[in-house]
From TrEMBL:
The UniProt record lists the keyword Cell membrane: no
Signal sequence extent: none
Entry keyword Oxidoreductase: yes
A Pfam family the protein falls into: Epimerase
InterPro entries xref list: Epimerase_deHydtase, NAD(P)-bd_dom_sf, NAD(P)_dehydrat-like
Keywords: Oxidoreductase
UniProt-recorded name of the protein: Nucleoside-diphosphate-sugar epimerase
Similarity comment: family membership: Belongs to the NAD(P)-dependent epimerase/dehydratase family. Dihydroflavonol-4-reductase subfamily.
Highest taxon of the lineage: Bacteria
Record domain NAD-dependent epimerase/dehydratase: where: 4-249
Organism: Antiquaquibacter oligotrophicus
């Protein structure tokens, strides 16, 4: 088994990746922004079923600083780079999101190259593939790239596009033997870890808490975090994965947000009593988008059902993802069990 560096070890996807790597017998080194957080991160992982915790260690690094990265990469055969800022909607300075994503990825790649790492698996996002195109009659594949300034592309989306393109440019330099694979998940839901709720799981939490007056006429492609983690782990060692992008989705059409609420009400009973049932008219969402940039990505995709191929995920990586319904229910139940709603 190999030594694997996992960046951003306190994150949602990273936690599931770490657990799966340890289950498979790997030694894991993970980066966190402060070693003072290590006990809390270990507690969350233990509570989530971590085995072989003695094979997990931590190193302190920052995406915007060089310190610590050479030590973090030293002796690692593989790197799974998950650390990246998550900030959707309007930001005061887009560079606060873009620079850590792009420059952080390059910092990790340089450290990996210099340490003789075999392969880096970098987490991108569906934002780098399926946003900003308008309402195409199209099944999105790994050959697609989102335009930087297309409708509905926000600072977070641009950070993912620019970071991934920079990474491919880096390994494309003459003489570079470092292998790169990128993972591009759609909206990630599934069992939470600890008290933090991140990513698309906020849709579930806000629904259960009754914090949404209704659902926009929006359709979301959803995938379970456990399958996203499995894709990262499989991409790490699969010979055919080198130099490839992989979309990670269920293969189902995007699901209506109102259907997310219906699934929660059907499966969680009284715990979902506050979940809304109404749909917000399109005209209201479009009007809100004129005054609030956070609504612009929603308004851009009203009524649009995105279709996402998962052929390479299944045939190359051998990952058969759970249905979206299972991810939604697992997210909701874990939040109820942990008192997060």
């Amino acid at each position: 088994m190999s030594t694997v560096l996992v960046t951003g070890g306190s994150g949602f996807i990273a936690g599931h990746v770490i657990i799966q790597l340890l289950e498979q017998g790997h030694t894991v080194r993970s980066t966190i922004r402060s070693l003072s957080k290590e006990p809390a991160v270990r507690l969350v992982l233990d509570d989530s079923g971590m085995v072989r915790g003695d094979a997990l260690s931590f190193v302190e690094t920052e995406l915007m600083a060089d310190a610590g990265w050479p030590d973090a990469a030293e002796g690692a055969e593989y790197v799974i780079h998950l650390a990246s800022p998550i900030h959707t909607g309007k930001v005061k300075d887009e560079n606060d999101v873009i620079a850590p994503a792009r420059d952080g990825a390059l910092r990790v790649l340089r450290a990996a190259r210099d340490a003789g790492v075999r392969r880096v698996v970098l987490t991108s996002a569906f934002h780098a593939v399926g946003f900003g195109h308008g309402h195409l009659d199209h099944v999105f594949t790994e050959d697609d790239w989102s335009p930087l300034n297309g409708p509905g592309v926000d600072a977070y989306g641009r950070s993912k596009i620019l970071a991934e393109r920079a990474a491919w440019d880096f390994v494309g330099q003459p003489g570079t033997t470092l292998e790169l694979t990128t993972i591009l998940p759609v909206a990630v839901m599934g069992p939470v870890m600890g008290a933090d709720v991140s990513g698309a799981n906020h849709i579930v939490q806000n629904s259960l808490n009754g914090q949404m007056p209704g659902y926009p006429n929006m359709f979301v492609p959803i995938v379970d975090v456990r399958d996203v983690a499995a894709a990262h782990v499989a991409a790490m060692t699969s010979p055919a994965a080198a130099g490839q992008r992989f979309l990670v989705g269920t293969g189902e059409p995007a699901i209506a947000m109102k259907e997310v609420g219906a699934i929660l009400r059907a499966e969680l009973g009284a715990a979902a009593s506050k979940t809304p049932t109404r749909t917000i008219p399109n005209v209201v969402v479009r009007l809100a988008a004129r005054f609030n940039d956070e609504f612009k990505p929603v308004a851009a995709d009203l009524g649009y059902v995105k279709r996402v191929s998962n052929e390479k995920l299944r045939t190359v990586l051998g990952v058969t993802p759970r249905p979206a319904r299972e991810a939604i229910v697992a997210a909701g139940r874990s939040m109820v069990e942990r008192g997060l709603v």
